[in-house]
């Protein structure tokens, strides 16, 4: 789901249709998935910075 949204640049409507789930369910799962990914990156010593649209972008750890 995350790769469909951010790598393949599909809209939430397109992804919901593709996965046959309600758009609200998709958004909820996407939020939880991004929150978990951000937490895991931060625990691994990586920095995450918000970018345009409120999304987070991977930033390699400096140091």
From TrEMBL:
Annotated region (Disordered), positions in chain: 42-63
Q: Which InterPro entries match?
A: RNA_pol_sigma70_r4, RNA_pol_sigma_r3/r4-like, WH-like_DNA-bd_sf
Domain RNA polymerase sigma-70 region: start-end pairs: 2-38
Identification of the protein by name: RNA polymerase sigma-70 region 4 domain-containing protein
Q: Where is the composition biased (Basic and acidic residues)?
A: 52-63
Taxonomic superkingdom: Bacteria
Q: Which Gene3D superfamilies would you find in this protein's record? A: Winged helix-like DNA-binding domain superfamily/Winged helix DNA-binding domain
